[in-house]
Amino acid sequence: MAENFGNMDSQQINADILLHAYRQGLFPMARSEDDDHIYWVEPDFRGIIPLEDVHISKSLAKTIRKQKFEIRINSSFLDIIEGCASPQAGREETWINETIKTLYLELFQRGHCHTVEVWQDDVLKGGLYGVHIEACFFGESMFSYATDASKVALAYLVARLKHGGFCLLDTQFITSHLQNFGAIEIPKKDYSQRLSSALRRRGDFFRLSTTASPAEVLQLISQTSNTGCSTA
Hints:
With 232 residues, the chain is an alpha+beta fold. It has a single domain (45-222), classed as Aminopeptidase, CATH 3.40.630.70. 34% of the residues lie in helices and 26% in strands. It has 8 helices and 10 strands. The strands form 2 sheets. The protein has a 7-stranded mixed beta sheet with strand order 5-6-7-8-9-4-10, with helices on both faces. Helix 5 packs across helix 8.
């Protein structure tokens, strides 16, 4: 169950309002790609992936070691958000409308939105995007045109966040796909405490080299420490 707040049209919201909303525990959605309005969501139970307890399957680790994909960061934002908005297996409709695309492009241009992209032979096969504020990363959407592409993107995101000192990976809701990575639901009160703590710290999204080896990525994911990220 989620609490929805009033609709806003595209003239009432900008990037600054969006960033403020994230800091308060809200995020925006559209009802469909054809609806110009945005509504705010604050779930009673919030999905997160605890960075100190991420699960990677043996098959996914094997895929990462094989280096069948090339990972790029922030190289093709528009292609990523279009991919996330495209029809996928089991998902015929999208909540990503033109207003969402415009707002997140502005966040990207201001350095508050990032992409993790999965390429193969110079063809985009999958990826994700999300919002970066202090030591928080708010995952927005992901897509895949090839087996394991979105899973690889998420794995590389986790390694980047852990190496960069992030404290919160917000997934908004959880799916079976995310649960395989260790995603859990926590009550709104607990989420607010984690959010407040992470907003008092700084995360460096670019600390991990784009040429990090599969071994380094997997080693980072397996670390169970989360130094400096107490919710106290």
